[in-house]
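cron nightly-structures :: item 1 of 1
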Amino acid sequence: MSEVNQIIIGICLLIVVVTLTRKFHAWQIKRAYFRIVQDIKSKGAFDQKSAVDLPYARNPIFRVGLRDHRPIALEHLVQDNIVGMTEDGKYYLKDRSV
């Protein structure tokens, strides 16, 4: 096999790996959406008065182990007005239809 063919195959494999990695992380974040909403529902936080503090709301200083997608997912849920955040950093479910 010529050197040019090897380079083309290598580039194609690299593109496939990058695409699959991005899809995997998107899938993990989507799973985190559902877990966060279920967690907030189970704690009964449906308005500002019943808002709860979520331990995974902030990224830890020292990362040990696998990547935690919940802080990113929570940030997206707040931006999409599905989850609300109080002034003191507690969270509640704004959209009950989720």
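cron nightly-structures :: done
Residues 32 and 84 are 16 Å apart (CA to CA).
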